């Protein structure tokens, strides 16, 4: 196997050693050990793809963004193809340059295209069968691309315009000079949580390099290692969605709750101040005492009733002290399709039991994690970054009892729901009786959409097959 460097950094042509006689031939099409040794990569392929096209079919220039980016190993099994790769990595010494390689069933050449490259090809023979290995799975929502006839790149496709067959999708791609190639790096804590998973969906198709860290990858209670861990990713923006959220358990684990919700937030804020990164952090309605009778604005007096609320408030204060340019979003009653939350618990109980009791004198508004994630994306894409505290929850006012009744209506269950006062449902942690959030500031400043809670609930229950 012969591995040839191209003029593009990290891009290689591979020529196999072919052994044959009148009976046929043999060659080794891929050897991981030899490949990694000669290319200096640790690329491992997870998906094989094959396509068939006729002469003049032009595909590309395509790539996938962020964590969904793909490296490819490309070859032609039948026919003849002009393969094109464009270095779209802003920090690369060959950024903006392209290379063409003719691949055919006769020459048995392969080309290795690293992550961060745009890729395309045009069929030169009557037909061609195209085969490629990928080191990441296909994600439609992460696709992006550049027009095949971009004047800045000026690629010679070898065929006349009249001979080319191009899809509407490829015709609609933007030109090179309107694309921002300096992709912001976003690190998300709590990557496996409700908001973290929702952000994975919402950010997949955006022009960001994203890194989602769960509690194993970033153990927030180990505050001494947070700076070093964050430094490994060099983020431009941190979305701090991780938290100790076991409200009742926090009463018996105040030190651990404080380490995660307060001290870790302080470390993250100090990192952002030291390295010039932006910080968007998620907080909670539990910073309030529940004594209000009107929707709570961002400057309403705080007074947490439990350890969880106190540690989140201390986290807010540490962020404002060390990184005053940060954005803090307080939210309430978060739920999603997955995870331990009120909606999933009620869906199970309503199907299993004939009767359940639900607290009716705690008032607020549920928040669908997908809606909150969309609001965060809207803020990231806004023209200006305006620091401060903001409130976000779905529109409408509801009690836990009303919420449970609405869930029952969605699935048509016959279970009887009994409203009870908080006094009849004692818990280790006291909850605020009223924590309805005023969302007018976030709507005014960032123009975010705030769906009504019943509409979002209906969408989630339908997705869960309710």
Secondary structure: helix percent: 25-40%
Overall average residue pLDDT: 92
Q: What distance separates the N and C termini?
A: 56 Å
Please report the total strand number as a whole number.
Answer: 26
Task: Characterize the biggest β-sheet.
Answer: 6 strands, antiparallel
Strand content: 25-35%
The side-by-side strand order for the widest beta sheet comes to 1-2-10-7-12-5
Spatial shape: elongated
Model regions low in confidence, pLDDT < 50 over at least 5 residues: none
Output the number of helix runs: 11
Radius of gyration: 27 Å
- Which structural category do the helix and sheet elements fall into? alpha/beta
Would you mind describing this structure in some detail?
There is one protein chain. The chain is α/β, with parallel strands linked by helices and 466 residues long. It is 26% helix and 27% strand. Helix 3 packs across helix 8 (369-380). The longest helix is centred in the middle third of the chain and has 22 residues, at 254-275.
Short description:
The protein has 466 residues and is of the alpha/beta class. It is 26% helix and 27% strand. The strands form 7 sheets. Strands 1-2-10-7-12-5 form a 6-stranded antiparallel beta sheet, with helices on one face. Strands 6, 8, 9, 11, 13 and 14 form a 6-stranded mixed beta sheet that branches. It has a 6-stranded parallel beta sheet with strand order 16-15-17-18-19-24, sandwiched between helices.
């Amino acid at each position: 196997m012969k591995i040839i460097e191209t003029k593009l950094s990290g891009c290689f042509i591979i020529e196999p050693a072919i052994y044959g006689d009148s009976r046929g031939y043999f060659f080794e099409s891929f050897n991981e050990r030899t490949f990694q040794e000669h290319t200096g990569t640790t690329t491992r392929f997870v998906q094989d793809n094959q396509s068939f096209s006729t002469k003049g079919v032009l595909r590309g220039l395509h790539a996938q963004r962020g964590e969904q980016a793909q490296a490819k190993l490309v070859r032609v099994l039948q026919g003849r193809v002009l393969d094109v790769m464009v270095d779209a990595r802003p920090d690369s010494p060959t950024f903006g340059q392209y290379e063409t390689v003719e691949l055919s069933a006769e020459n048995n050449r392969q080309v290795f295209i690293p992550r961060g490259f745009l890729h395309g090809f045009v069929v030169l023979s009557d037909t061609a069968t195209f085969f490629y290995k990928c080191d990441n799975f296909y994600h439609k929502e992460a696709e992006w691309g550049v027009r095949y006839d971009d004047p800045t790149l000026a690629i010679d496709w070898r065929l006349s315009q009249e001979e080319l067959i191009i899809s509407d999708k490829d015709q609609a791609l933007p030109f090179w000079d309107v694309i921002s190639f300096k992709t912001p790096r976003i690190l998300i804590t709590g990557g496996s949580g409700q908001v973290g998973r929702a952000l994975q969906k919402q950010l997949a198709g955006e022009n960001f390099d994203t890194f989602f860290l769960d509690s194993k990858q970033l153990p927030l209670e180990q505050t001494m290692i947070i700076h070093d861990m964050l430094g490994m990713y060099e983020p431009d923006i941190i979305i701090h969605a991780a938290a100790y959220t076991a409200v009742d358990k926090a009463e018996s684990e105040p030190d651990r709750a404080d380490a995660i919700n307060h001290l870790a937030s302080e470390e993250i804020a100090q990192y952002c101040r030291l390295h010039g990164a932006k910080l968007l952090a998620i907080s909670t309605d539990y910073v309030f005492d529940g004594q209000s009778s009107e929707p709570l604005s961002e400057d309403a007096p705080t007074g947490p009733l439990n350890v969880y609320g106190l540690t989140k408030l201390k986290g807010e204060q540490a962020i404002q002290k060390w990184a005053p340019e940060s954005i803090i979003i307080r939210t309430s009653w978060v739920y999603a399709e997955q995870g331990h939350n009120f909606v999933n618990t009620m869906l199970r109980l309503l199907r299993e039991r004939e009767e359940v009791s639900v607290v009716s004198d705690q008032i607020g508004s549920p928040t669908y994690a997908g809606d909150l994630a969309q609001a965060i994306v809207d803020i990231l894409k806004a023209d200006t970054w305006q620091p401060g505290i903001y409130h976000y929850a779905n529109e409408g006012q509801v009690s836990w009892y009303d919420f449970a009744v609405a869930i029952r209506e969605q699935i048509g269950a016959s279970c009887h729901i009994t409203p009870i006062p908080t006094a009849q449902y004692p818990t280790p942690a006291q909850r605020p009786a009223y924590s309805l959030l005023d969302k007018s500031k976030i709507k005014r400043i960032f123009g975010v959409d705030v769906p009504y809670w019943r509409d979002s609930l209906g969408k989630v229950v339908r997705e869960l097959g309710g």
